[in-house]
Design a protein that fits this description.
Strand 5 and strand 6 form a beta hairpin. The chain is of the alpha+beta class. The protein contains 8 helices and 6 strands.
């Protein structure tokens, strides 16, 4: 019976997102980026945290980035996680968590990346530290100040919900300094 209820819930979510159409979901996500996500992207705590990490990481090589990412991934499976704990304990992470919580379930996660695509802050630990090889960073930070990237809707296996990621460039003085990604519950987005 439990399996039947879970399956019915997943099917109902899929039907809600499917019946709305992919373009409507994309349009609503872009509007959300402009209206709400831009507020956290322009928060002084976010901007200062990115600028500080950009300065700290200015001399990193790709080998350094790969090594840091490998450490992060290993910590995700470990009982101790000093690198993840450091990022989670930053003031910017508290700010992102407050923003996530303000959405009352609409936002599923929020994380900010620097000019190399490395995590600066997060509401929830990400699966990897380096996002610089992914569209969420490439199609925002590298694309310029007004860029928005909206992912496809996908089922999150851990929560059973349908989600998408909305990303935008973080700017300071008109110049891209990083990017922000917000996970959005697709069902809640469509009922707004």
């Amino acid at each position: 019976m439990k399996y039947l209820i879970a399956t019915t819930s997943v099917l109902a979510g899929l039907l809600a997102v499917s019946s709305a159409g992919a373009s409507e979901v994309q349009d609503k996500a872009r509007a959300l980026a402009t209206a709400e996500i831009s507020l956290i992207a322009s928060d002084p705590v976010v901007i200062e945290a990115i600028k500080a990490q950009n300065a700290k990481h200015a001399g990193l090589t790709q080998d350094d980035v790969d090594s840091m990412d490998k450490t992060w991934r290993a910590e995700r499976k470990s009982a101790t996680s000093p690198m993840i704990d450091d990022v989670a304990g930053r003031p910017v992470s508290s700010q992102l968590t407050s923003f996530r919580d303000s959405g009352k379930g609409l936002y599923t996660e929020v994380f900010v990346m620097d000019d190399k695509g490395l995590n600066v802050g997060m509401s929830d630990p990400t699966s990897d530290y380096w996002q610089g090889d992914e569209a969420k960073w490439k199609e925002t930070f590298l694309a310029g100040p007004d860029a928005i990237h909206v992912s496809d809707v996908e089922k999150d296996d851990s929560t059973g919900t349908f989600q998408l990621q909305v990303s935008t460039t973080v700017v300071d003085g008109g110049k891209p300094i990083g990017a922000i990604t917000v996970g959005v519950d697709a069902d809640q987005l469509m009922t707004r």
